[in-house]
Amino acid sequence: MIHPITEHVTKSARHTSFYLACGPEDGTPVIFVHGWPELSLSWRHQLPVMAALGFRAIAPDMRGYGRSGCYGEKSAYALEHSVADMIELLDSLGQERAIWVGHDWGAPVVWSIASHHPERCHGVANLCVPHFAKGFAPENFLPLIDREVYPEDTYPAGQWDYQMAYMENFDAAHTAFEADVNATVKAMFRKGNPAGRKKPSRTSTTRRDGGWFGGLPKAPDFPRDADVLTEADLAAYVAALTRTGFAGPDSWYMNHDANMAYALRAPTGGKLAMPVLFLHGAFDYTCETLDSRLAEPMRQDCVDLAEVVVQSGHWMAQEQPMAVNAALAKWLATRFTPLWRG
């Protein structure tokens, strides 16, 4: 049976969430949480596959994006608020628990849900960004930089230099992204390059270069990468990001202290007992988890962890959807047999 993807909105006194849904309404929810600078659309390849397996596949626009609530204060984009958004979304579905899947900034949201609300989780899966029980923040991941690739005297912040750029010159960052949104999206959404392994990521020289685009006021006009985006996908991203701007999405990078304080309030100290799946991007050189020690804290704090390497760059769910879907389906079938309706 082919299930259509439908559009929905849920509202509370504190937030509005737009979301896509696919699959039987009484199916176990699998909720997909996107990152920067994406949309519910980013999971377009996963929703119908999970629906065909009998799950209720859900993908919201996160706060600051698309048709969900957008806020002017940077503090509104601390992880605690997005976790509350997702719990409200689950409540609106009339469900007690879900399987949660995250990518990029969506991964820290999902890790936080697992840490603070384990009773609302059957299990969690995340792409690219591993778990940090003490919080996803520079204080916790800078010590794990691969200093063979990033000598400290040349690359003090390693591949995370771009995050320092947000904190030091926030207005310049989002202004450059907004100057030509079409060019920005084409420049960002590109497949992984195997030749880049063991070489510095382009995100490691953001401050030295004077911004994301080498000091240029806007993104250069690259050809669209057809292995990641169709013309229709590109148009949808551009329309949404033109409407909302980048100040909200970029504000997710401005709450490290609040996010660490929130992580420390997790009832189990961030240790996860539930089934966890992590997908490594073989050619993701920012969230580089194969050669560096970045995944070590996750392995210490997840007692039921499965790991899969996907031959992709950062935009894994869009670049290698078949591999992502296969990994998810295998994990769901073997770890959640009572929930399986395929």
List the helices and strands and how they pair.
Blueprint: E1 6-11, E2 16-22, E3 29-33, H1 47-52, E4 56-60, H2 79-92, E5 98-103, H3 106-116, E6 121-127, H4 138-141, H5 161-168, H6 170-179, H7 181-188, H8 231-244, H9 247-251, H10 256-263, E7 276-281, H11 296-301, E8 305-310, H12 316-319, H13 321-335
Parallel strand pairs: 3-4, 3-5, 5-6, 6-7, 7-8
Antiparallel strand pairs: 1-2, 2-4
Helix pairs in contact: 2-3, 5-6, 7-8
Largest sheet, strands/sense/barrel = 8 strands, mixed
- Helix/sheet category: alpha/beta
- Report the CATH architecture: 3-Layer(aba) Sandwich
Overall body shape: globular
How far is it from the N-terminal to the C-terminal residue, by CA?
11 Å
Major sheet: arrangement of strands? 1-2-4-3-5-6-7-8
Tally of contiguous helical segments: 13
Name the beta content range.
Answer: 5-15%
CATH superfamily membership, which one? Alpha/Beta hydrolase fold, catalytic domain
The low-confidence parts are: none
Q: What number of structural domains do the residues give?
A: 1
- The beta-strand count equals 8
